[in-house]
């Protein structure tokens, strides 16, 4: 009889201990879950959705203009600093840039020159794109000559065309400034040939002419490092073929805001000045790799970068 009571008491005690153990484990799990949402400093860590966003590739398209090389590389460095693991940048001509944004092959670009330079592309693709934010104000395009050339207006080019070799030195054929230059040739009845090439070839031709004090007219835009290095001037455009000053916009594919909200937030805050971008461009022109020049600027401007990222 005594053994039977003892056995019953042991079984009851075992049940109580088992229940207590289960309750303790549940409380421990709850505590770990709460702590898992906090860092050592007491701030919340990213949710599963946010973590997924940071691990997904970010694809940025851009055109091979010196300013857009600078801005795109800076944005790549900023996103890496913000925690994005894979930030891809791809250079294309303006037409494919807008087409691939509309098709969702790029997440965004910081290279949209509007409302004039890329007007044609916006008319074709604008309803399939998301205009996020203006990132740079007061951007001009036009025909540029060395300051020692005595003419001051596009209207005067025909009278001096022989001194220019009958040529206007341009850049990539698909660039908006090339389309505007074709318009200028028509508007002013210019008897000159617009020579396509590349941005690098254009600045090389400009340097060669400046070194020998020759006459040259090129397609150029601001901001550009050439204005820091040489004494240049825009030719007046009384017919308005090149439009008023552009601004540069950050443009995203449709759906980015919903799919990558943290990234989209950074894009809404990204805005800088001519001095900012000129600093990066000059470093690149002086031989620094674009990625290195961008990383240097990011390191030297922590307050602005933190504002873009959204840190207090």
Automatic annotation (TrEMBL):
A GO cellular component entry from the record: ATP-binding cassette (ABC) transporter complex
Gene3D superfamilies xref list: Dipeptide-binding Protein, Domain 3, Glycine betaine-binding periplasmic protein, domain 2
GO molecular function: amine transmembrane transporter activity; carnitine transmembrane transporter activity
Ranges for domain ABC-type glycine betaine transport system substrate-binding: 57-300
Subcellular location per the Swiss-Prot or TrEMBL entry: Cell membrane
Pfam families on file: OpuAC
Residues making up the signal peptide according to the UniProt record: none
PROSITE patterns, per the entry: PROKAR_LIPOPROTEIN
InterPro entries per record: ABC_Gly_betaine_transp_sub-bd
Any single GO BP term: glycine betaine transport
Keywords: Cell membrane, Membrane, Transport
Protein's UniProt name: Glycine betaine/L-proline ABC transporter substrate-binding protein
Organism encoding this protein: Methanosarcina barkeri CM1
